[in-house]
Amino acid sequence: MDRRSYMKGMGAALASYAVASGAKEQPAMESSREHLTKAEFDQLFKQLSNWGRWGKGDQLGTLNLITPARRREAAALVREGVCVSLARDLNEEKSVDNPDPLLDVMNLGVDGKFNMDTYTVNFHGFAFSHFDALSHTYYEGRLYNGYPDSNITSSGAKVLDAAKYYDGIFARGVLIDIPWLRGLPYLPTDALITAHELDQWEEKTGEHIHSGDAILIRTGRWAFREAKGPWDIANASAGLAPSAMVWLHQREAAFMVSDCAHDALPAPVEGVDFPIHVLAIVAMGMPLADQCNLEDVAREARKLNRQTFLLTLAPERIKGGTGSLVNPIATF
Amino acid sequence: MDRRSYMKGMGAALASYAVASGAKEQPAMESSREHLTKAEFDQLFKQLSNWGRWGKGDQLGTLNLITPARRREAAALVREGVCVSLARDLNEEKSVDNPDPLLDVMNLGVDGKFNMDTYTVNFHGFAFSHFDALSHTYYEGRLYNGYPDSNITSSGAKVLDAAKYYDGIFARGVLIDIPWLRGLPYLPTDALITAHELDQWEEKTGEHIHSGDAILIRTGRWAFREAKGPWDIANASAGLAPSAMVWLHQREAAFMVSDCAHDALPAPVEGVDFPIHVLAIVAMGMPLADQCNLEDVAREARKLNRQTFLLTLAPERIKGGTGSLVNPIATF
Amino acid sequence: MDRRSYMKGMGAALASYAVASGAKEQPAMESSREHLTKAEFDQLFKQLSNWGRWGKGDQLGTLNLITPARRREAAALVREGVCVSLARDLNEEKSVDNPDPLLDVMNLGVDGKFNMDTYTVNFHGFAFSHFDALSHTYYEGRLYNGYPDSNITSSGAKVLDAAKYYDGIFARGVLIDIPWLRGLPYLPTDALITAHELDQWEEKTGEHIHSGDAILIRTGRWAFREAKGPWDIANASAGLAPSAMVWLHQREAAFMVSDCAHDALPAPVEGVDFPIHVLAIVAMGMPLADQCNLEDVAREARKLNRQTFLLTLAPERIKGGTGSLVNPIATF
Amino acid sequence: MDRRSYMKGMGAALASYAVASGAKEQPAMESSREHLTKAEFDQLFKQLSNWGRWGKGDQLGTLNLITPARRREAAALVREGVCVSLARDLNEEKSVDNPDPLLDVMNLGVDGKFNMDTYTVNFHGFAFSHFDALSHTYYEGRLYNGYPDSNITSSGAKVLDAAKYYDGIFARGVLIDIPWLRGLPYLPTDALITAHELDQWEEKTGEHIHSGDAILIRTGRWAFREAKGPWDIANASAGLAPSAMVWLHQREAAFMVSDCAHDALPAPVEGVDFPIHVLAIVAMGMPLADQCNLEDVAREARKLNRQTFLLTLAPERIKGGTGSLVNPIATF
Fold this sequence. Notes:
The structure is a homotetramer. Chain A is of the alpha/beta class. Chain A has helices at residues 3-7, 12-22, 27-32, 38-48, 68-75, 178-182, 195-205, 221-228, 242-251, 275-284, 295-304, and strands at residues 83-85, 103-110, 114-122, 130-132, 152-153, 156-157, 169-177, 192-193, 214-218, 239-240, 255-258, 288-290, 308-313, 323-325, 329-331. In chain A, strands 1-15-13-7-9-11-12-4-14 form a nine-stranded mixed beta sheet, sandwiched between helices. The first copy, chain A, has a two-stranded antiparallel sheet with strand order 2-3. In chain A, 29% of the residues lie in helices and 19% in strands. Chain A contains eleven helices and 15 strands. The longest helix of chain A has 11 residues, at 12-22. The first copy, chain A, starts with a helix and ends with a strand. The A-D interface holds A 99-100, 105-110, 112, 118, 120, 125, 154-155 and D 99-100, 105-110, 112, 118, 120, 125, 154-155.
């Protein structure tokens, strides 16, 4: 891969970073070069934009990259016949990273035969494994593919809503386990995952990201929480650097799953506080699965020495919704 | 298949039915023999019971039949690489078959960047495509595997809850399209699907149900609703006859999906109003997916002339819950 | 008051209790005589029944006792012009006495001008100050006034629902502060408040309960919780003895408010676990306000040396509902 | 009343309106003069501001005007002893003016004795009778009394939340029935209620608005809906003109109740779409009860020929909330 090419068009800061990273600098120095001005970010937004790529009326974005052929290849990865959930149990306990716990009201003994329950969930945020439809995020008044954000009203999203993804995602899943790469149990909360580090991961594992892949980015967030308790992750989270999005765009990744919000927080972009959400969802048209459980799949991947598997995920068909709870499954 | 054997132990009414059905009687006459007394039903319950089969502490029931080998075989069915949702869009309109519509409250412009929504759903019942965990149904004070129903409290289900199925279902799916078999667009609301009719389906299609299969039973309920509007389906629904459960038990079906509640309503059993739920969930330990959308998969099946495919389904991980919304996917 | 008369018709246990209590026995001994068999309870149910008293179709029960004249008298009690809430802040923290916390989802910056929120509440139980409509409780298949419980369906209560009380309650409120009477900060969790103790309260305060009064029974539950933390109040709560209901029935109390569920738990009646709910709501047709905050009003009452005031309360107009959150107000 | 004085400081348009209205012009012409530029509105905001009036830390706003003396006077208005609800039954049917119907999930037969229900409500908007706490609205980044809007977070309102009004409102209520004044069953949706019209109402009825009064402004919205069905009231509603707020501010009204959102929609102010909400809630610190039922109270008022009564209202104690459902009661 020609690192200069994917930096083409970015601002001076990233350009010099590109050169520097070719020189194998330390991550610490490198990450200081990941900070973008608003103008540089806007330039990057244009560079990564898929608006119009799949037609003026397209609402599926990068999911278009998951073709029938890719699905067949993904199915062929099922060798051990072992399924692993990428969701966490839904959290009913209030905490600093869960201001609106799941409310699940039981209803017992209906007709002397049935137990039932009703749940209420504010699923976005930092507590629940969930799917972000493309209606979830906008930038400067526009959703993916240039749809005005005015399409999203108090009656629901008229475009890019959760129900659009009714047939789900069926793709090759690739686990990129960064703590494992760095030899840590989990990343520190200020870690930035750069394009350079993704290169290193490919080099170490011998795997390559292909068009239509679903990428799982592990930061070890839940292992961190297990060890140290909940913290204000909205203001202190490891995550992807903008350069990682350039890398993923070039390789034509179709979907991303993370154990955090994908975004490093606070964000390394001046005046844009969730730049990865903006680049992925708005510019590229890539839906996301946030706050997933990547601990179990990481254990299985290490045990089997496999980083790839079939990834299946099916959002709830909420017409007008901006996403839903989801339980993605890795099948080895 | 020896029809006499699977009727062994049932009451006199069903025994004579078994003989009669061997004689290829009319379904109308046959279905009159599907009506059971309470004592016959209790006998049938014992006959179909899987309590203890997978150990005293088992909570997965017939999902144990979906082995890694079965999963590999199921994955190998992905040939066209086409995914089809088995869920319906979640219904937000009150109607006779939807007393508690999905409530989805929008939350726009959060941080000048995000659209969000919060949903509340009483998912059991007749309106939403959903998963029934084994904690959903009990019979005479007992859940599957003999767990007392007192395990289900207002704080949640301590056993057999939705979160137990975290790794989801990954199995061979087989569509049994009864209206197609009968040459109808949809079944009348008093139709009973008997073991005899399942035999006929196997004969006509040349397919055989195997251990670990996920069976999709289409009654055409949504086509009926499309044609005639919503009706009080709680009191008028096509569904399975008790003999069908004997048949499915013998073949070791692992899971069932239907476009209604599986149960014929009113039920043909004296004093037991959802006998199929009781037999499947409580006796056999077979979770169910109710009220699914089988119209799209039926179209695809006819188009491809395929009744089998990969079925994937992953319930939400609601600890203590009795099921969840679900969007099962058939992949051809 | 002739204590023998109000015991007329109760079982032998209570009759002997009545004689004994005339002899000024100790409360501890007395309370042992408050334990009823099922047959004695059923006898008491009949004795206290108001079925038919206000007509066959009546749905207001004892609220009929609050006449325009009573309302005028109640309004005349406003002398200081001081209002005191009888509700608690709605609890959003899960605890042993709050399995389903209030869920309140914020929605900020709507139209650049409005902050909003959506709340979900399972209001019955032990956590929230709430109103019990007469549809909330039944006994042996019957609601107040003999309505079959089948009137309450999954679509809502067709009779005796919360919306029936649309014009609210406007009555003389009388605080009966039992811990104050006993010289304690709060009652022990096994305390039974008997008719005898209510007599003592009248004697000490010089107040008399009249027809149409709204009675506030303080056990000090919230002071107990403040001192010792939440506990499993469903299984350990001070409350009213059955004899207290005889006393209140004779005096024609119209409404009751308590800081607990009114019922002593576990209940002193064989085979009937919330006997006070059954007697008040089902037999007498008296709605209740449970789990209210009586700490602030008790302080004000002591400060002003007044036990009576105007009590206003207006349930939410939930058609088909069994009650609602409520914030009753005492105005001195 | 000196009309010139209350217009002092408003822009040229209103000044000339003031002169003109002194000349008893037609309402139609007058209302054209009610249209304000943004600059005129900002001037008016300053004129009506109560920031600092009751101290820097005040959170009660105009409710401070309801003194113990006012409460005693209000209680003395109870002469007939008749209570009338000012709420509507909570709407469970989706419609153009009710995008998020109340969801009420029943839970029957709990412990063989109790019927329960759980409700979810997005109470602001145009469908439900509700209370607006002062945290509900902000203007140019500020809440009432200058609190920055950043006090309202996704965890709740840290200031001016619903629970602040725990002791409720107990005041003289005055019904200003504008359709009655105009001889109409209900106002047209483009009607503007001006200061001039409020003068006319005082003249006709002989009543005068005093400090601490709770004003009920009837537009006849529900009679209109009854006659013609629901419409998009968010874009077509009768309501108060800005001059009415000047009038109410001068008279020191403490609280307002309306059968719509108080605001005329679309609003007659350039660039400010709910100017009455902004003036009342943000500038004056006056909470509101929106979307109330004023049909029943209007009937009672006409029957008794009384425009004044005791108004009681108690919001739910939602800590951090921006208001709640409410059932205000008028007692004659």
